[in-house]
Amino acid sequence: MTGADLPEDIFAGYDDEPNLQDRGAVAEIVDAGPLVVCWRDLDLDETAEELERLHEWVSWLVGRYELTDRLVPDCWWRHGALVEELSALRHAWHASFDAADSGAGPIGWHERFALLRDRIERAWYKGACRGQHLDAPPRNLPPIPERAAIA
């Protein structure tokens, strides 16, 4: 997948959506080692690049562990919480399989993976997008009243 192949609505919600045809291909994915990604702080180009790297890894993960769309739907990239979870899992995977690891890293990663699977399946996602993407209803928090006291 290249930057031009990313779904057009990947940038929904941003003020300045890029024309993906003009952007050209995202640089070839390389394993740059552990990357901690703070998605909130990325600009549009950085988001596309990081999402491409994450997509490559998630595609491997889904195939390797035979994950169903109940756990990782085709529209996973449209679910911010799932992007955050998978990104964190990818970072833990890189760190766990580092040559400097004492040898306990891989089993620790699999333990974290089991926790993530349980969290996704039971806590928030529950396979809602099986077969088609369903947007969650928007939620806006009300403003804090003036002179509000902390409970």
Layout of helices and strands, plus pairs?
Elements: H1 20-23, H2 44-64, H3 80-96, H4 105-124
Helix pairs in contact: 3-4
Characterize the structure shown:
The model is unreliable at 1-5 and 13-34 (pLDDT under 50). The longest helix is centred in the middle third of the chain and has 21 residues, at 44-64. The protein has one domain (3-124). It is globular, with a radius of gyration of 18 Å. The protein has helices at 20-23, 44-64, 80-96, 105-124. The chain is built from 4 helices and no strands. It is 41% helix and 0% strand. It starts with 19 loop residues before the first helix and ends in a 27-residue tail after the last helix. The protein has 151 residues and is mostly helical.
Which terms summarize this structure?
151 residues; mainly alpha; 4 helices; globular; disordered N terminus
Which sheet architecture does the biggest sheet show?
Answer: none
Question: What coarse outline follows from CA principal-axis ratios?
Answer: globular
In total, the number of domains comes to 1
- Report the total helices: 4
Distance between the termini: 49 Å
Order of helices and strands: HHHH
Residue windows where pLDDT falls under 50 for at least 5 positions: 1-5, 13-34
- The percentage of residues in β strands lies in under 5%
Can you give the mean pLDDT?
Answer: 77
Count every beta strand, where a strand is a DSSP E run of 2 or more residues. 0
Derived from helix and strand composition plus strand pairing, the structural class reads mainly alpha
Helix content percent band = 40-55%
Rounded to the nearest angstrom, the radius of gyration is 18 Å
